[in-house]
Amino acid sequence: MTQWSGYFGLILQGALVTIELTLMGSVLALVMAFLAGLGRLSRFFVLRALATAYIEFFRGTSIFVQLFWAYFVLPFAGISLTPLQAGVLALGLNVGAYAAEVVRGAIKSIGREQYEACTALNLGRWQAMRHIILPQALLVMLPTFGNNAIELLKATAVVSLISLADLTFQAQVVRSQTGNTLVPFSTILVIYFVLALLISWGVRSLERRMARGLDGVRV
Amino acid sequence: MSAPIIKIDGISKSFGTFKVLDGLSMQVMPGEKLALIGPSGSGKTTILRILMTLERIDSGHIQVDGEHLYHMERNGRLLTADERHLAKMRQKIGMVFQLFNLFPHKCVIDNVTLAPMLTKGVPRAAAEKRAMELLDMVGMVDKAKAMPAQLSGGQKQRVAIARALALSPKIMLFDEVTSALDPELVDEVLNVMRKLAAETDMTMLLVTHEMGFAHDFADRVLFFDRGRIVEEGKPDEIFRHPKQERTQGFLKKIIAAGHRV
Predict the structure, then answer these.
(1) Mean pLDDT value across chain A
(2) In this structure, are B195 and B254 located in the same domain?
(3) What residues of chain A, 118 to 177, have a C-beta less than 8 Å from chain B?
(4) CATH of the domain at B223
(5) DSSP letters along chain B, please?
(6) Same-domain status, B212 and B108
(7) Best residue of B108, B118, B175 to probe chain A, by most A CBs closer than 10 Å
(8) Residue from B54, B103, B112 to probe the interface with A (highest A Cβ count within 10 Å)
(9) Chain B: residue nearest A133 by CA?
(10) What confidence score (pLDDT) does residue A218 get?
(11) Which of A47, A199, B50, B157 is deepest in the core (most CB within 10 A)?
């Protein structure tokens, strides 16, 4: 019994690493999503091209390869990252590329009449975007952002391959030390699931709060 | 005789192969109340949208308040207006839309104060004071904190009028502002516009299918068909004694459809 509780301690440590990765990766993904999403809608060709290149590249290559690149190849260019930094970078850039399309789609879903009201009220482009379009688009983005965050949570498992001691890594440690697969992997299965539930629940309550007083907007 | 506040000179506008405006010229005097009537697709709404810079013209010239709208003078040459020039010109013009176009995520008073605070740097307190005066004028003070979704169509449109007025434009454009309303809500909006016409010397251009209102409200009525002005004159002349066959036909159809004249 004491033996198992020690192993549980390991897995809980792993859970903390997974949570840390998920949170930091999500922040980076969010930043990249807005940069690239707005970039794709820019008037300037260079910005559109940069954003498109980023999105297509990171959607079109495997997260696994991206992670190995960040951790094993970047050092040759003089950039050495810790496993955590490499994990956050790869996850954030990868999921950010998907979320960028969510940002773009949500902004485009706001009706022309809102833009026209902004023009009639003489708001500048950025003023209109910041005060009128984005607040409404954010509500459209939220459910899909929730999906993206869960995808990111699940993708954190790949960082165990660069020896970052996350949930999956610790489960493997327990497995190799005890020879038991059922217990550690059932435990992390439940933990991943609970974390994903927490994300869904958090996003949904955020949505409800933001949608208060609105109608005609998907909730 | 003062100078016209709007001078439209030979403008054309096509959407694809459909020519909406065809070499149109017209003038509007300061303070004039103008009603634009005509069948749908005749170009009347397009004129308002062009004046509000929501559509560009293909050719021709427009002057508003003594300045070119879509051109700017640089060293004696006329260039296409840049965004900064357009922003300056938009200060002179306000517009109310058929579908209100309120900002659904902002309460009534925030809808009204937003543009003065952002575009003119009016402090919040002053913007709210002015907003309350305007909401009072349109009879919406008690809904200042309501969200647009909680309002009826007529109430939304009255807020939209207050919102446009908050920027103190010299010219107000009303684009079929009662067309989307239930019949019993039309009058509350028209009453606000009557009041506005009586209390201010704003220039007002009105695209409408409310012929009775156009008759009472307007100093001059323009009848449009196929991108041209077919007939214009005092409301009595146009509604009681239209000279052109097309005007007569249009009015006959409108009356048959149950509109009051």
Answers:
(1) 92
(2) yes
(3) 119-124, 127, 131-132, 135-136, 139
(4) 3.40.50.300
(5) -PPPSEEEEEEEEEETTEEEEEEEEEEE-TT-EEEEE-STTSSHHHHHHHHTTSS--SEEEEEETTEESSEEEETTEEEE--HHHHHHHHTTEEEE-TT----TTS-HHHHHHHHHHHHH---HHHHHHHHHHHHHHTT-GGGTT--GGGS-HHHHHHHHHHHHHTT--SEEEEESTTTTS-HHHHHHHHHHHHHHHHH---EEEEE-S-HHHHHHH-SEEEEEETTEEEEEE-HHHHHHS--SHHHHHHHHHHHHTT---
(6) no
(7) B118
(8) B103
(9) B103
(10) 39
(11) B157
Per-residue pLDDT tens over the stretch B156-177: 999 999 999 999 999 999 999 9
ipTM for this model: 0.92
3-state secondary structure of A99: helix
CB spacing of A136 vs B105 below 8 angstroms: yes
Whether pLDDT at A183 is above 50: yes
- As given in the structure block, the two tokens for residue B23 are 């070499």
The H-or-E segment that residue A63 falls in is helix A63-68
- Specify the pairing of strand B93-96 against strand B171-175: parallel
Instruction: Mark whether B60 and B133 lie in a shared domain.
Output: no
Of B95, B105, B118, the CB nearest to A214: B105
Q: What number is the average pLDDT over the span A8-22?
A: 94
- How many angstroms separate the CA atoms of B147 and B151, rounded? 7
C-alpha to C-alpha distance for A149 and A146, rounded to whole angstroms: 5
CB contacts, 8 Å: B101 with chain A: 113-114, 116-117, 120
Q: How much of chain B, in percent, has pLDDT values that exceed 70?
A: 98
Which positions in chain B touch A215 (Cβ < 8 Å)? 104, 149
B243 φ, ψ to 5°?
-90, -35
Do residues B38 and B44 lie in contact, with contact meaning Cβ atoms separated by under 8 Å? yes
CB contact (8 A) between residue A213 and residue B164: no
A43 interface with B at CB cutoff 8 Å: no
Q: Which two tokens stand for residue B204?
A: 């007002």
Among A123, A136, A217, whose Cβ lies nearest the Cβ of B118?
A: A123
Torsional sign, CA A76, A77, A82, A84: negative
* CATH architecture classification, A16-165: Orthogonal Bundle (1.10)
**Where among B149, B168, B187 does a domain terminate?**
B168
Task: Judge whether residue A33 has pLDDT over 80.
Answer: yes
